[in-house]
Amino acid sequence: MQKIIVPTDFSENALNALYYAVELFKYEYCEFYIIHAYADEVYNNNDMTSRKRFEENKASVLKHSEGTLTSLRDDLLLVSPNPRHTYITLSLFGSLVDETNELVDKENIDSIVMGTRGKTDDRTITFGSYTLQVLKYVKCPVLAIPSEYKYTQPKNILFPTDFKLPYKRRELKILHCLAKSYRSVIHFLYVSKYERLAFRQDDHKLFLSETLAGNKIEFHTVNSDDVTMSINESISRYEVQMLVMINSRQSYLESLLYESKIDTIGLHLKVPFLVMQNLSR
């Protein structure tokens, strides 16, 4: 049984991510927690002159949230009446990161699926502020879906790695199950001027091979010091439908997320992006 959180702000981007998730996991038994964290909507309302007005507004936002979530669940049951899927809707008065983290711990969540951008849909940026916060601070795998991306079976999955990280079996299991369902090829991409691996890297590479033994995997080495360019070129070369990366301390991905360099360095994410958190949970 997979447990999956799908945050929503009721935008088209969030709806697109939800329908992608339902389709992607159609072969799995899943509990989908469709959540709306609405504290910011309440606190950002400038028309609050008293505590009474504040509480009235809070109740109004909650009522709207619960009603919209119920309608969304009803639509899902009509469009995708999958007996393997259960939909749980939650309106939560708190920040998205705090509420998501709490739910991850409480329900032992396997993954989070969300749009790369929300209501603002600023197309000059790769990630909206809420998505970036979840990627940075929630200790759970996150699958981010670009706003204009329509569901396509992930036949080719790109996994850039320097083989320096000690991978976690639980999160690799998510990749294993996805790839197995679609008979996907997992392309491991090693970008380096030095083809020979250190003993630690060799051991981690062997661990990946053994853990994903039931999948079709290929290893590629690119002689370059430009990781971003190599990733972009490989997405095109191998006709990739999903990009997978590991976020951990002092990793390439962490430097992008925490220094907000994804947009400036040109990592063009036009395919779903699965971020696995190599952090303690």
Describe the protein:
- With 281 residues, the chain is an alpha/beta fold.
- It contains 10 helices and 10 strands.
- The protein has helices spanning 12-24, 39-43, 51-79, 96-107, 129-137, 169-182, 199-211, 227-237, 252-258, 262-265; strands at residues 2-7, 30-37, 85-92, 111-115, 142-145, 156-160, 185-191, 216-222, 242-247, 273-277.
- Helix 5 (129-137) links the parallel strand 4 and strand 5.
- The two termini are 19 Å apart.
- Residues 261-266 have low confidence and may be disordered.
Provide keyphrases for this structure.
42% helix; elongated; alpha/beta; 10 strands; 281 residues; 10-stranded mixed beta sheet
Q: Kindly report the spatial arrangement of strands forming the biggest sheet.
A: 3-2-1-4-5-10-9-6-7-8
| End-to-end distance | 19 Å
Q: Largest sheet, described in full? A: 10 strands, mixed
Range of helix content: 40-55%
> Which stretches of 5+ consecutive residues score pLDDT under 50?
261-266
Percentage of residues in strands:
15-25%
State the order of secondary-structure elements, H for helix, E for strand: EHEHHEHEHEEHEHEHEHHE
**Helix/strand-derived class?**
alpha/beta
Bulk shape: elongated
Annotation field: number of helices? 10
Q: Please compute the radius of gyration using only Cα atoms.
A: 20 Å
Rounded mean pLDDT is 87
Number of strands: 10
